[in-house]
Amino acid sequence: VQLQASGGGLVQAGGSLRLSCAASGRTFSSYVMGWFRQAPGKEREFVAVISWSGGSTYYADSVKGRFTISRDNAKNTVYLQMNSLKPEDTAVYYCAAGPPYAGMAPADFGSWGQGTQVTVSS
Q1: What is residue 25's predicted lDDT score, i.e. its pLDDT?
Q2: Torsions phi, psi of 45, nearest 5?
Q3: What is the pLDDT of residues 66-112, one digit of tens each?
Q4: What are the tens digits of pLDDT across the range 13-30?
């Protein structure tokens, strides 16, 4: 599956952004989808994951209550709604597709989008 992330940008602290990740291929609904982020000089870290049906989601503690992951299998798209953004959320955000057993580790995911930059100013 090929992934294309979009929706990043510059926003003030407390603001909101919605990231989108469009997938190609007819098997999108069979994949677990995740969002990860990587700040300069840091390792890529888990943000959120959603099951193939959308019925199960899981979040990193740092974003819980502020970010919401969702998917529309009819549109082959996964979203990340980000509210109450903080400067420490600044990073390149990546979407990823993985098998049904994929969890929170980047190594669980085999397909990655190109990343979209999110910058939160204080």
Answers
A1: 78
A2: -125, 150
A3: 999 999 999 999 999 999 999 999 999 999 999 989 999 999 999 99
A4: 999 999 999 999 778 888
Phi, psi of 119 (to 5 degrees): -125, 125
Question: What whole-number distance in Å separates Cα of residue 18 and Cα of residue 105?
Answer: 23
Task: Tell the residue number behind the tokens 């999110």, with chain if given.
Answer: 118
Cβ neighbours, 10 Å, residue 122 = 9
Closest by CA to 108, choosing from 4, 47, 22, 34, is 34
* Distance, CA of 118 to CA of 120 (rounded, Å): 7
Pairing relationship of beta strands 116-121 and 9-12 according to DSSP bridges: parallel
As a whole number of angstroms, the distance between CA 11 and CA 3 comes to: 24
Cβ neighbours for 62, distance < 8 A, ≥ 6 positions apart? 88
